[in-house]
Amino acid sequence: MNIRNRTPLHRQPVFRVLQMQLLVTLITAIVCASVFGIVAGYSGLIGGLIAFTANLYFALKAFRYFGARSAGAIVRSLWSGEMGKQILTAVLFALVFVGVKPLEPVALFAGYLLVLGIGASALLLMKKNLRH
């Protein structure tokens, strides 16, 4: 028996990570725009939004179930969430490279990688939530 997680996303620990990813996306866009120009600014913003959108999809998909009785459903939802995240990332990058002109690839990948770094340090961000 699969137990559906009815907790809204904004009440789950992953929400703090998503908030930090959006904040880093905006900061990256502002810094790139002020230092390197407007093209670098929106390129950094797009890169961050690609990572954020893919991670949001993963969070919505992966945290659908909870409890020991739902172990199989949890594994399936994590796997499908990760595969969907990878496909979504590839599609979004392809759309950006085809549709956005002019584009600053260095800023695009910098925004993407900075937001991925927030996801990689998620345990540090969530550690504070576990103490309360």
Summarize the topology.
Layout: H1 14-36, H2 38-62, H3 71-99, H4 105-120, H5 122-131
Transmembrane segments: 20-39, 45-63, 83-100, 106-126
Membrane topology: Multi-pass membrane protein
InterPro entries: ATP_synth_I (IPR005598)
Describe the largest sheet: none
- One letter per element, helices H and strands E, the order comes to HHHHH
N- to C-terminal distance: 30 Å
Shape: elongated
- Residues in helix, %: over 70%
Could you tell me the mean pLDDT?
Answer: 86
Counted up, domains total: 1
Uncertain runs: none
Give the percentage of residues in beta strands: under 5%
Radius of gyration: 17 Å
Number of strands: 0
Structural class: mainly alpha
Count of DSSP-assigned helices: 5
Walkthrough of the structure:
This protein is mainly α and 132 residues long. It has one domain. Helix content is 78%, strand content 0%. It contains five helices and no strands. Helix 1 packs antiparallel against helix 2, helix 1 runs antiparallel to helix 4 and helix 2 packs parallel to helix 4. It is elongated, with a radius of gyration of 17 Å. The relative contact order is 0.20. The model has no long low-confidence stretch (mean pLDDT 86).
Characteristic terms for this protein:
78% helix; 132 residues; mainly alpha; transmembrane helix; F0F1 ATP synthase subunit I; single chain; transmembrane; membrane
Gist of the model:
This protein is mainly α. Helix 1 runs antiparallel to helix 2, helix 1 packs antiparallel against helix 4 and helix 2 packs parallel to helix 4.
